[in-house]
Amino acid sequence: MSTLLVALSHPDDEIGCAGTIAAHVASGHRVVLLWLSRGEMTEAFGDLPDDEVADRRMAHGAEAADILGCEHRFMTFPDTRIEAGPDAAREVAAVVAEVRPDAVVTWGGAWRRGMRHPDHQAAGRIVRDAVTLARIGKVVRPLDPHRADVALFTLRGEHSTLPEAAVDVTEQRDTIMALQRHYYDAVGWPEASFLEDRLRRAGARHGVELAELFDAWETPPGLGRSLI
User: Fold this and answer.
1) Domain enclosing residue 98, as ranges
2) Is the pTM of this model over 0.85?
3) 109, 160 contact by CB (below 8 A)
4) What distance in Å separates the CA atoms of residue 92 and residue 114, rounded to the nearest whole number?
5) Residues 35-62: what's their mean pLDDT?
6) Looking at the predicted structure, is the pLDDT value of residue 115 above 90?
7) Which helix (H) or strand (E) element contains residue 166?
8) Number of structural domains, the chain?
9) 3-state secondary structure string, 86-108?
């Protein structure tokens, strides 16, 4: 059994790779879904205090993980104020050393609104740095360093010039749409038609019905059913 770590900024970010998570679970891989923040700055709940919003968002994340069939964890970086830096990278490196993934999915660079959220940009940098720092014993003590090769993938923006990896998620459609309904009911996003259109357009690029796209940082590009 191999392990995929999906490390993102906020609960609901995983909508962009829900089918990939479900496909890995269906193949018998361990998947750990990590959110760096608790998503407390959403305005979906009006004027509730941030701590109450965080509690709701953490509950939504737990339910999302149940839908996807994966493990989940939260960190406590502040929503809208995630900052990339050595201390943040060391915190996440400890998680990498504990989880010991064979592959990691996180945020990459992006131009479009939504994907270019500053928390997304910062989280991607933190996680990518953490994969390297997790190899250093003095950084992750008392944990053992994780020195195995870790395949790195980032959620793909439409203007990316990096090699493109695609995962065929046609068989995961029901799970993806169950997660869509969950978050739409919880926070009003995403629209089913928007998500279906994105999956179909990605699939058409690779000759399948539905696909999710990633930047392949260190591995060959192309279509598969797994990132591992």
Assistant:
1) 3-224
2) yes
3) yes
4) 23
5) 96
6) no
7) strand 164-168
8) 1
9) HHHHHHHHHHHHHHCCCEEEECC
